[in-house]
Amino acid sequence: MVKAVQIKKTGGPEVLEFVDKSIYKPKDEEVLVRHTAIGLNRYDLEHRKGIRKIKDLPSVLGVEAVGIVEELGKKISDGLKVGDRVGYCTAPPGAYCEKRVVHQKYLIKIPDEIPDEIAAAVLFKGMTTHYLINQSYKIKPGAFVLVHGANGGLGQIICQWAADKKGVIIGSVSSDEKMKIALQNGCTYAVNYNDKDCISKIMEITQSRGVGAVYDPIGYATSKLSFESLGKFGIYVSYGQISGSAPVSFSLLSSRSLFATGTSIYHYKHDRFTLVLTAMEIFEMIRKKLLTIRINKRYKFDEIIEAHRDMENRKVNGLNIIKVS
Q1: Cβ(262)–Cβ(238) below 8 Å
Q2: C-alpha triplet 275, 276, 282: angle, nearest 5°
Q3: CATH tag, 2-124+266-323
Q4: What is the Cα–Cα distance from 230 to 61, expressed in whole angstroms?
Q5: Omega of the bond prior to 13 within 30 degrees of 0, cis?
Q6: Where are the domains of the chain?
Q7: What is the rounded distance in angstroms from the CA atom of residue 10 to the CA atom of residue 19?
Q8: Please, which contacts does 156-159 make with residues 24 or more away whose CB atoms are closer than 8 Å?
Q9: Among 11, 78, 154, 257, which residue has the fewest nearby CB atoms (within 10 Å)?
Q10: How far is the CA of 320 from the CAs of 132, 159, 254, 295, 316, in angstroms?
Q11: Are 2-124+266-323 and 137-262 the same fold in CATH?
Q12: Burial status of residue 112 (CB atoms within 10 A of its CB: 0-12, 13-18, 19 or more)
């Protein structure tokens, strides 16, 4: 039996419950992984609240973890062996547990020089950043982009990576105090999206042209600002709906021939080749110090409910993990 955290229904942090789960031996191409660190992500919160649907309930939450290979199925073909350090971020939810059986196609070997905690903090967010700035909207030198939640874990990685691509990054945060964090993580400018003059500041920065893209994990609360900030042919890139869905209409889009897209890591990183190649790029960015990974808070496994309350109340910034061992 292993300890796990599941939900039987969607709702607030109170729906999280600790349970003992039996675990079966890995079959064929499956691998038993003993978790050492679990990534804490907004997807976990959105799954818990029902914003993103989970196929079956009850369900163990968590999309990202790192650990040690303990046992292999009989048809492993990817060079994995017992004792290897591996991580994953595109497997079905189920990371909130001590041990888990995972198909080998989701597993990524972690380089010796990358600690477990760093890998658990960056895999999901790094993968997401990669498709946001290379595929959802390809950032080119000099392109103006607005990044909401620039002080958050994913926001920090987007801003750093976008800055490396020579984009002009406007970091959007919820308070003046958080603007410093945005500027420390590659933003050229920082704005407070609660400031009544925010739009005029963005237009001043862009010389009234507006931005080419808005990256928005928040949704409803920032949608008005987002669309007013876009220039002609600009694109609104949604990768989360923390405050609810953004209202989008064709009349709004046609006002400046705008585009809007909703994204999911499971579409952009669905095949093994893309997954491994992107992981290699993330690790290389860390090695070259082009990405600085700062872990803000480390929760213990039995503090997962507290971690969700902190996320719900926006008491945590940056990259946060759950330590298992």
Answers
A1: yes
A2: 90
A3: 3.90.180.10
A4: 35
A5: no
A6: 2-124+266-323, 137-262
A7: 17
A8: 156/181, 156/185, 156/294, 156/318, 156/319, 157/122, 157/125, 157/126, 157/129, 157/291, 157/293, 158/129, 158/132, 158/133, 158/215, 159/185, 159/186, 159/187
A9: 257
A10: 21, 17, 40, 6, 8
A11: no
A12: exposed
Three-class SS state of 294: coil
pLDDT < 70: residue spans in the chain: none
Looking at residue 215, what is its pLDDT?
97
Task: Note the Cα 83 to chain centre separation in Å.
Answer: 27
Q: What are the distances in angstroms from CA 159 to CA 47, 69, 272, 317?
A: 25, 33, 26, 15
pLDDT for residue 146: 98
Burial class (CB in 10 A: 0-12, 13-18, 19+), 84: middle
Per the structure block, which two tokens stand in for 251? 């009349």
Of the CA atoms within 13 Å of residue 23, those in its CB half-sphere come to: 22
Q: Are the beta carbons of 190 and 155 closer than 8 angstroms? A: no
CA end-to-end distance (rounded Å), the chain? 16
- β-bridge partners, 21: 2
Residues composing the chain: 325
- Specify the 3-state DSSP secondary structure of 185: coil
Residue holding tokens 């971020």?
Answer: 89
The whole-number pLDDT of residue 313 equals 85
Residue 61 contacts residue 52 (beta carbons within 8 Å):
no
What pLDDT score was predicted for residue 310?
Answer: 93
Class of domain 137-262: alpha beta
**Tokens encoding 50:** 């029902």
- Compute the distance between CA of residue 25 and CA of residue 114 in angstroms, rounded to an integer: 29
What whole-number distance in Å separates Cα of residue 126 and Cα of residue 108? 13
H or E, element range at 146 = strand 144-148
Backbone CA torsion sign across 272, 277, 278, 280: positive
Return the structure tokens found at 195. Answer: 């400031």
For residue 126, what pLDDT is reported? Answer: 96
pLDDT at 243: 80
